[in-house]
């Protein structure tokens, strides 16, 4: 019985740690900050 509870606790803890890690990394990601240059043809249209 304790093995099942221990395994369940460790699985839950690993899931929570993974969620926290992804949440912490997401704001610092370079992909969010990347903003491509606007093409000249598009600048003329707008």
Automatic annotation (TrEMBL):
Family matches, as InterPro entries: AgrD
Going by the entry's taxonomy, the superkingdom of the source organism is recorded as: Bacteria
Protein name as annotated: Cyclic lactone autoinducer peptide
Protein species of origin = Biomaibacter acetigenes
**Taxonomic lineage of this organism?**
Bacteria, Bacillati, Bacillota, Clostridia, Thermosediminibacterales
């Amino acid at each position: 019985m304790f093995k099942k509870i221990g395994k369940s606790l460790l699985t839950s803890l690993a899931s929570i740690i993974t969620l926290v890690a992804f949440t912490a990394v997401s704001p610092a990601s370079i992909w969010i900050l990347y903003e491509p240059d606007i093409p000249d043809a598009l600048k003329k249209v707008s």
